[in-house]
Write a structure and sequence with these properties.
It contains 1 helix and 7 strands. It has a domain of about 80 residues. The protein is of the alpha+beta class. The relative contact order is 0.13. Strands 1-4-5 form a 3-stranded antiparallel beta sheet, with no helix packed on it. Strands 2-3 form a two-stranded antiparallel ribbon.
Length: about 130
């Protein structure tokens, strides 16, 4: 008989503990509209856009400091990133992140394909223009 009472007491204690755990683990939301996926982005310059595989901020899209070809020294103001851009798509933007400030740069209204025949550059598929 004593074993049976001990079992009931143990089962009751376990049920009470589980009830308390559930009561303490549930909590009321303080923020009515929390941001489900906040952008946590490191400072730097990124390539991002529908014309690339980099649709969201990604460290793979962060431009890196390049070396000066002559002196073979790193130049902090010279950045590079090689990325494929799909033709006929919405393209991409260059975004500079500094803390909470994001500066988005893209093609200006004069950005167009070069149709001149006397350019000393690739004549097929060359685009030029301002960045705004």
């Amino acid at each position: 008989m004593r074993k049976h009472n001990f079992f009931k007491l143990s089962l009751t204690a376990f049920a009470l503990l589980m009830g308390l755990a559930v009561t303490f683990s549930s909590c009321k939301k303080d923020d009515p509209d929390p941001d489900p996926d906040p952008d946590i982005v490191l400072d730097g310059t990124y390539i991002k856009g529908a014309g690339t595989a980099l649709i969201e901020y990604d460290t793979k899209g962060m431009m890196q400091i390049a070396r000066n070809e002559v002196t073979q020294e790193d130049r902090a103001s010279l950045l590079e990133l090689y990325v494929a851009v799909k033709g006929g798509s919405d393209g991409f933007n260059i975004i500079t992140v500094a803390g909470d400030v994001k500066t988005i740069m893209g093609p200006g209204s004069d950005f167009a394909e070069v149709t001149e025949t006397d350019v000393d550059e690739p004549k097929d598929g060359l685009w030029r223009g301002s960045i705004v």
